[in-house]
Design a protein that fits this description.
The protein has five helices and no strands.
């Protein structure tokens, strides 16, 4: 332990005498310690030109989403469409040439399925109100 005491005593003496030496130099008219030299000037930074962007070989995520949406709209008939379209053929041969009175007369004896087909066909084509008003086989 005596070595540790000697070491600590030396550190204590050095810590006390360093400020005293600086004060003695200033009082004696000595010059203060020289300031450290300024750092060397750095060369001016070159401004880099923005690199032109390379065209991507693949589409971006946004472009892929837009392509998917356009494909869906083309398949379903657009954004306002509810889905696939159903095309209904004539309920019976010569239906388009028949007068509304003749169609109503035939619907008097039609089944529920025939009546539904006639209504669907009328909605898609001429939409004659007298025929669309027929409900449950009664005009």
């Amino acid at each position: 332990m005596p070595g540790l005491l000697i070491f600590s005593g030396r550190v204590l003496v050095l810590l006390l005498f360093v400020p005293l030496r600086a004060i003695a130099r200033l009082l004696a008219g000595g010059e203060p310690a020289p300031a450290p030299p300024p750092p060397p000037p750095q060369p001016p930074r070159r401004r880099s030109r923005p690199r032109p962007r390379k065209p991507r070989a693949e589409p971006t995520r946004g472009q892929v989403a837009a392509m998917r949406e356009a494909s869906r709209e083309a398949q379903t008939g657009g954004a306002d469409s509810i889905g696939a379209e159903v095309h209904i053929a004539e309920p019976w041969p010569g239906y388009d040439e028949m007068a509304p009175e003749d169609v109503l007369a035939r619907l008097q004896t039609a089944s529920d399925v025939e009546l539904a087909v006639v209504r669907a066909y009328e909605r898609e084509h001429e939409a004659r109100p007298a025929i669309l008003a027929v409900r449950d086989g009664a005009p």
